[in-house]
Design goal:
Blueprint lengths: L6 E3 L20 H11 E6 L3 E9 L2 E6 L1 H4 L5 E4 L5 E4 L5 E2 L6 E6 L20 E6 L13 E10 L9 E3 L11 E3 L5 E11 L4 E8 H7 L15 H10 L3 H14 L4 H13 L3 H14 L4 H13 L3 H14 L4 H14 L3 H14 L4 H14 L3 H14 L4 H13 L3 H14 L5 H12 L3 H14 L6 H14 L3 H14 L4 H13 L3 H14 L4 H13 L3 H14 L5 H12 L3 H14 L4 H13 L3 H14 L4 H13 L3 H14 L6 H6 L4 H11 L2 H11 L6
Parallel strand pairs: 1-13
Antiparallel strand pairs: 2-3, 2-5, 3-4, 4-8, 5-6, 7-8, 9-10, 9-12, 10-11, 11-14, 12-13, 13-14
Helix pairs in contact: 4-5, 4-6, 5-6, 6-7, 7-8, 8-9, 9-10, 10-11, 10-12, 11-12, 12-13, 12-14, 13-14, 14-15, 14-16, 15-16, 16-17, 16-18, 17-18, 18-19, 18-20, 19-20, 20-21, 20-22, 21-22, 22-23, 22-24, 23-24, 24-25, 25-26, 26-27, 27-28, 28-29, 28-31, 29-32
């Protein structure tokens, strides 16, 4: 027996059947049948993979019916029940029916699991609708084994066939569904899903099953798995290597399988998945193209190729393939909607993404992948942190070892401002899957928030090391550019930003970052050009307007500052930046009443927004309210004691009040942080008024201060 191959040759036998007969009456709704089947369908994992159904219980011992080819390789196996509990299997207790692809597997549990009602496969006739419940193997876009439910139509029944595959139906299962229960319209088991067949001359695919009555009539012949040497099967060996993450080794095995049979669809499909895991999307697509050339109705190949197109950012092609898969097999709608929602999220069409993911979860409320994807949409796209975290909590509750869900929840915590929880989730994601490179990129973002730039740099370098050829390597360069920016290594930051744009010239975020770098390099025209390009690519990006308003301010184009500030407020009214920019506009016009109103509005959005607190102090000083001004600057220093602007302003005010020694000490502390605060022109650009500038000039002309500034001028730079 050639085991665990999805396909076996199937030539010229369909024509002998009388295929179409009336359906028998449906006793249950499809959703009710699925719910029944889900209660007794189990996942089988180990040396081989497949599914099964609980058919008996004796005390604490449960019996699972499956295919022999799912468990015929000796080794360790476990049963995963619908509640995600895992039970080890004692291999020598497995029994199988010789010359038939049927086996039973036992496990022990004191929990109460549903036992399937057994139907009568003899009553199934051609034209009847039957159903399959199973846990398919992971494939592109579906990284976890989740419960799926399919409907199919019986095409024919053979009087006898190799290994008992006498039941034929029109929709083949997908890898990992072997051993899953075939169910009638009352939710009763009538057979075992076994393999798929492929008619080579037409490219048509069929499903093959074993009628339940074959098991019930021969179960007295069950034998122990002793002295059995499973026939070597290169696809099975390759799948085992792939589960061990030896994808190169897996590809070698699939190549050997294809040398023996150039039409082995399972080998092509598994090889495409191995290429997918190696991020070799071109090779993955070529294998899927070959499958679809042979069988243009292969649903799984369309789904997998849709995911490949999504990774290559060919989003319209991705949507087309996913829509084709859905049209061919509506039973896959829960997975297709989940995958399509992910594509829309990548396209930043977040409402469409949300709509598809909502539909996916309505169809399958236990789909942890859809919850995880929707978490990302809420976090990245819609900035609804609580909903994002709730969805990822649900995904993790369903599958506690789902690394992607921890990654997405970590991102949600990070963008929501809870860096410590973000760090904990990202560390757990790395423990579960240290080769999932986006974790390192996301954790570097968290370290940036925590101002732990060296750790951030190590993580972004690790992301490249883990997978130096991944298709979105531009994101690594973009993040590293941001790290170098925070380390004030602007030339390195610029080089990485340029590389990110070279790799992906349509990523607006790279232009936002580079505009900030040019701003700090005082190349304002280039900064403005990049901010404009970012807004052209994404007119709703808040940060681009923040950058551009700052550039317009330095270029003294204040009307445009106000326009951009208004846009910021309209985009995200709960952030302080837009109100602060409007305050700057009125501040420069010396319209202090309106400026104060805008600064206060900014503080209603973030009471610790130090730029607004400090600028209120500048206005109060010009109004002669020195003590009130000092109080504002002291409030800044409570939040951030290293704010040079607040220190220097406080020193000037204290000097004007006659507190010289304290003024000198605080001024020197400020200048150690940033000696530009000894430059009166720099102070004017930062909206220091005439009164404060005049008092600052007096302080800076003091011999003690001149001597201190001279020592700073002679001190070598550390950067």
């Amino acid at each position: 027996m050639k085991k665990n191959s999805l396909l076996i040759p199937f030539i010229g036998i369909v024509a002998s059947f009388n295929l179409v007969q009336p359906d028998i009456a449906t006793a249950l709704e499809r959703s009710e049948i699925s719910a029944l089947a889900k209660q007794y369908t189990v996942l089988i994992d180990g040396e081989e993979t497949g599914s099964g159904a609980i058919i008996d219980k004796d005390g604490d011992t449960y019996t699972v019916l499956t295919n022999w080819h799912v468990v015929d390789t000796p080794g360790k196996y476990q049963i995963v029940t619908p509640d995600r509990e895992k039970y080890q299997v004692v291999y020598n207790q497995i029994r199988y029916i010789p010359e038939t692809d049927v086996a039973i597997v036992k496990f022990n549990s004191n929990k109460n699991y549903a036992v399937a009602e057994l139907g009568n496969s003899d009553e199934i006739v051609e034209g009847n609708t039957i159903y399959l419940g199973a846990y398919p193997d992971p494939f592109p876009g579906v990284p976890q084994r989740i419960y799926l439910f399919f409907s199919t139509e019986v095409n024919g029944k053979l009087s006898e066939a190799e290994q008992g595959y006498t039941l034929l139906f029109n929709k083949p299962g997908i890898p990992g569904t072997s051993g899953g229960p075939l169910v009638d319209n009352n939710g009763r088991i009538v057979g075992i899903n076994s393999k798929a067949s492929w008619e080579r001359s037409t490219g048509s695919s069929f499903g093959l099953g074993i009628p339940l009555q074959l098991y019930t009539r021969q179960k007295k012949n069950l034998s122990p798995p002793t002295g059995i040497a499973p026939q070597e099967d290169f696809v099975s060996i390759g799948k085992k290597k792939a589960r061990e993450k030896d994808y190169r080794g897996a590809i070698e095995q699939y190549n050997r399988a294809l040398e023996l049979d150039a039409n082995n669809r399972d080998a092509y499909l598994q090889r495409s998945l191995a290429y997918w895991n190696l991020k070799d999307y071109q090779s993955a697509q070529e294998d899927l193209d070959l499958i679809l050339q042979k069988n243009p109705n292969d649903t799984v190949a369309y789904m997998a190729r849709g995911e490949v197109f999504a990774e290559r950012q060919e989003y319209q092609k991705a949507l087309s393939d996913l829509d084709r898969a859905l049209k061919l097999n509506p039973d896959l709608e829960a997975i297709v909607y989940s995958a399509r929602g992910n594509v829309y999220a990548r396209m930043q069409e977040y409402q469409k993404a949300l709509s598809d993911l909502d539909r996916a979860l309505k169809l399958n409320p236990d789909n942890e992948i859809a919850y995880s994807n929707r978490c990302l949409v809420y976090a990245q796209g819609l900035q609804q942190w609580e909903k994002a975290i709730t969805d990822c909590n649900e995904a993790i509750w369903i599958e506690p070892n789902f690394a992607q869900a921890y990654l997405n929840r970590g991102l949600a915590y990070a963008v929501g401002g809870d860096n410590q929880k973000a760090l904990a989730d990202l560390n757990e994601a790395i423990r579960l899957d240290p080769n999932l490179f986006p974790i390192y990129l996301t954790r570097s973002f968290v370290y940036i928030n925590l101002k732990e730039y060296e750790k951030a740099l190590a993580d972004v370098n690790k992301a490249i090391e883990v997978n130096p050829s991944f298709y979105r390597v531009d994101l690594a360069y973009l993040n590293r550019s941001n790290i170098y920016f925070n380390l004030e290594e602007y030339k390195k930051a610029l080089a990485d930003a340029n590389k990110a744009i070279e790799l992906n010239p349509n990523d607006y975020r790279a232009y936002v970052n580079r505009s900030g770098i040019y701003f700090n390099l005082e190349e304002y025209k280039k900064a403005l050009a990049d901010a404009n390009k970012a807004i052209e690519l994404n007119p709703n990006d808040y940060r681009a307007y923040v950058n551009r308003s700052g550039i317009y301010s330095l270029l003294e184009d204040y009307d445009k500052v106000l326009t951009d500030a208004n846009k910021m407020v309209s985009l995200i009214p709960d952030r302080p930046d837009g109100y602060f920019s409007r305050g700057l506009f009125y501040h420069r016009q010396k319209n202090y009443q309106l400026a104060l109103a805008e600064y206060q509005q900014a503080l209603t959005k973030d009471e610790k927004y130090t730029p607004a607190i400090g600028n209120i102090g500048l206005i109060k000083y010009e109004q002669g309210k020195t003590e009130a001004a000092i109080q504002q600057w002291q409030s800044v220093l409570v939040i951030d004691r290293e704010k040079a602007a607040a220190q220097m302003a406080t020193a000037v005010a204290l000097y004007a009040q006659g507190n010289r020694s304290r003024a000198f000490r605080i001024a020197q502390s400020a200048l150690r942080i940033d000696k530009e605060f000894a430059d009166l022109e720099y102070l004017k650009k930062n909206l220091w008024g005439k009164k404060l500038i005049a008092d600052a000039q007096k302080l800076l002309e003091e011999p003690q201060m001149k001597q201190f500034i001279s020592s700073l001028d002679n001190k070598p730079e550390n950067k």
